[in-house]
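Thread: quick sanity check before group meeting

JM: Hey all, I'm pulling together slides for Thursday and realized we never actually wrote out the predicted structure for the chain we discussed last week. Dropping the sequence here so it's in one place. If anyone has concerns about the input, flag it before I start.
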Amino acid sequence: MPGLLSVTLALFLVAGVALTFNLNRLRDSFAWVEHTNEVLRNISAVERALLQAESGERGYLLTGGDSYRDSYAGASAEIPQLLETLKGSVSDNPVQSQRLEDLTASLNARLGEFKLAVDYGPGRLNEALAILSTARFRQLTPHIEGLLAQFRQVEFELLEARQQTANRNAVLATFLS
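JM (edit): ok, ran it. Output follows.
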């Protein structure tokens, strides 16, 4: 009888250790899925702020309205903070970190062009429009859009892989419990 009790206790301990190990893996898997979702939200926030800055800049040039200029200024000020947050989020991924450096340089150049156009304002509309029609500006737009699309695609691929891992770990944890 004492031998049976020892075997039962040993099996119980092994099952408990295995369950604890698998639950930790499951928790880590869910944390990586959440991390990837956070990166995707940060990418979308950068994209939204850029569109808002551009919209405010264009609205200000066309109407001279202070609300458009304020919208441009707020979004332009928000972008560096968003990029810094994104930098922290992708610090574990060297390829995404390099892509972010390229994106940051392009966004800064584009924001610089927006600033010049806004500084000219509606009173010097032709000069402002000349800035916006330059070859450099036209090249920045598709380049930034391409970088954002690549950034997002890599994160979607990571999300899919991490979700599959989380699902496998959930099945394993359920099976062992």
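AS: nice. The helical segments are 2-63, 66-89, 94-120, 125-132, 135-176. DSSP finds five helices and no strands in the chain.
JM: adding both to the slides.
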